[in-house]
């Protein structure tokens, strides 16, 4: 098989490349599931202890751009091929033209712009290719990295649900962000 040429590739930025999640990516999933603080911030809960079997089954379910609960999962790689994260796009509301995303970057790669760069690729896909009108996200209070990233992407804070998420022995606020296509076009294009 010859080498792919990425000179004019939609799924790539100057920092990361998105590719289909593969069954072989189970190991990344398994080891990142030991990061309890990241699980609390992303999933608003802690998961049961990770197992190799669960990570393999999960990776099999989401591999090859399979639609799983209206989500399509991608691996995030650096341009050098280092697997740094996972991102998915939630396409569950065609009627209203809204979409969401889920993002997880391994701890050693956080704060380097990989997540923001991957989000920009999927925002462009949602708005410019899928004809969607609004991106929405919720972030748990204390997830400063995600809050900062959403603001950097041009999202507006649209509301706060006080004491809405229970984890780690207390209630946390859930902060809602949104970005319309109209605002995206003013900022990103």
* Global shape: globular
Name the CATH superfamily assignment: Gcn5-related N-acetyltransferase (GNAT)
The largest β sheet comes out as: 7 strands, mixed
CATH topology: Aminopeptidase
Which spans of ≥5 residues are poorly predicted at pLDDT below 50? none
Task: Please give the radius of gyration in angstroms.
Answer: 17 Å
Given the structure, what is the number of helices?
Answer: 6
Architecture, CATH level 2? Answer: 3-Layer(aba) Sandwich
Number-wise, the strands total: 7
What does this molecule look like?
The chain is of the alpha+beta class. The protein has one domain: Aminopeptidase. Helix content is 31%, strand content 33%. The chain contains 6 helices and 7 strands; from the N terminus they run βαααβββαβαββα. The protein has a 7-stranded mixed beta sheet. It is globular. The relative contact order is 0.14. The mean pLDDT is 94. This is GNAT family N-acetyltransferase.
What key attributes describe this structure?
alpha+beta; Aminopeptidase; 189 residues; seven-stranded mixed sheet; globular; GNAT_dom
Summarize the model shown.
This protein is an alpha+beta fold. It has 6 helices and 7 strands; from the N terminus they run βαααβββαβαββα.
SSE order and pairing:
Elements: E1 16-20, H1 26-32, H2 36-43, H3 52-62, E2 71-78, E3 83-93, E4 98-105, H4 114-129, E5 134-140, H5 144-152, E6 156-167, E7 170-180, H6 181-187
Parallel strand pairs: 4-5
Antiparallel strand pairs: 1-2, 2-3, 3-4, 5-7, 6-7
